[in-house]
């Protein structure tokens, strides 16, 4: 196995994961470069959406595929926005986008004292569209939603995701430190081990 399709067209995600998969001698190929259409993501859990995306990419390419679904789960909101994280701001009349998501979240949490939240990344890999045993890796970075944004690194909710262990937000940490401890970093590390153990 020398190639796996990444069921995403996000350049940042591709670069982050490619670096982690390099030691396996496996190249990650972006699905767009193989003309794979975007998959439907109708499900309410990260694992179901990631599985749908991975099966779709495997179906269209005949190659093994890996997909991730990630989001922010806020305790005070019963785990929401969850799978709707990317569109969070649009529920409150803002255009879609990272900055607006942060603005909307801080507004919704203005009077909330329980600020515990987790960034969750679920990676799913399949050898074929029919694979009965998908590899599943979940990474969680638990922290608190800060009262105001801080830091200039990262993307998404990184400026308001305060990590008590570091005493800083993800956006204030150097990228290599963030990647080692982030939800996606944790999930990717587990996934590399699973692929080494089960597929190679």
UniProtKB/TrEMBL annotation:
Residues that, per the record, bind Mg(2+): 40, 69
Positions of the catalytic residues: 69 (proton acceptor)
Cofactor note: Binds 1 Mg(2+) ion per subunit.
The keyword Magnesium is annotated on this UniProt entry: yes
MF-aspect GO terms: dITP diphosphatase activity; ITP diphosphatase activity; metal ion binding; nucleotide binding; ribonucleoside triphosphate phosphatase activity; XTP diphosphatase activity
One of the record's GO cellular component terms: cytosol
Gene3D superfamilies: 3.90.950.10
EC number: 3.6.1.66
Record's subunit section: Homodimer.
Family: Belongs to the HAM1 NTPase family.
Protein's name in the database: dITP/XTP pyrophosphatase
Originating organism: Ramlibacter montanisoli
Organism phylogeny: Bacteria, Pseudomonadati, Pseudomonadota, Betaproteobacteria, Burkholderiales
Name of the gene encoding the protein in the UniProt record: rdgB
């Amino acid at each position: 196995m020398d190639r796996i399709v990444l069921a995403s067209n996000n350049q940042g995600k591709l670069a982050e994961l490619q670096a982690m998969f390099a030691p396996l001698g496996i190249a990650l190929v972006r699905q767009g470069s193989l003309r794979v259409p975007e998959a439907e993501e109708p499900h309410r859990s990260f694992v179901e959406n990631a599985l749908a995306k991975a099966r779709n990419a495997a179906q269209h390419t005949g190659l093994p595929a890996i997909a991730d679904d990630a989001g922010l789960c806020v305790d005070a909101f019963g785990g929401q926005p969850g799978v709707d994280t990317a569109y969070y701001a649009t529920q409150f009349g803002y255009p879609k986008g990272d900055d607006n998501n942060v603005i909307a979240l801080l507004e919704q949490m203005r009077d909330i004292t329980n600020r515990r939240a987790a960034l969750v990344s679920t990676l799913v890999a399949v050898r074929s569209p029919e694979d009965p045993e998908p590899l599943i890796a979940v990474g969680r970075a638990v922290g608190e939603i800060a009262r105001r944004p801080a830091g200039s690194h990262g993307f998404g909710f990184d400026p308001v995701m305060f990590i008590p262990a570091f005493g800083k937000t993800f956006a204030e940490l150097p990228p290599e430190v963030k990647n080692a401890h982030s939800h996606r970093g944790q999930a990717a590390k587990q996934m590399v081990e699973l692929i080494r153990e089960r597929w190679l």
